[in-house]
Amino acid sequence: MGYYFSKTLQVGFDEAVRRTTEALKQGGFGIITEIDVTRTFKDKLGVDFRNYRILGACNPQLAYEALQLEDKVGTILPCNVVVQEIAHDRTEIAAIDPVASMQAIENPDLKASAERVQTLLRNVIEGL
C-alpha cells in the first residue's frame, strides 16, 4: 500500500497552491497549518530549495470523531498535503493516505473514519 496519492498540474506553483487550497475548502477541509519549506531552508540553512509547501488540511468534524475514538491520533493529524514545483509550470500535489498512516492503530472504528477521510482527500486531489 502506498502512503500518498498525487497529481501533477500544468500550472505554476502559486496557482497550484491557490487551486489546492480552494479544492480542499470545497471538499470540507480547512488549512490549519502552512509550512513554507523553501523559506525555512533558506532562513535556517542558507540553502536554496525548490518551491515546496506543506498544507495541514483538517476536516473538523472528522478530526473530532477520530479524537473521540483515539485520543493520541492527534500525533498524526492534520492530513498533510504537499505542493511542490517539479518544473517550470509543472507542480505536483500529494496528499497523505490517512488509511496508510493509521495502520499501526488497532481500532476498527478509527479505520472506518480514516477511510471516509481517504475518500474525501482522494476526491480533492483527483478533482484538481
TrEMBL record:
Domain of life: Bacteria
InterPro entries: DUF302, TT1751-like_sf, UCP021774
Sequence ranges assigned to domain DUF302 in this UniProt record: 35-98
Pfam family, one: DUF302
Entries under Gene3D superfamilies matching the protein: TT1751-like domain
Coiled coil: none
Stated name of the protein: Uncharacterized protein (DUF302 family)
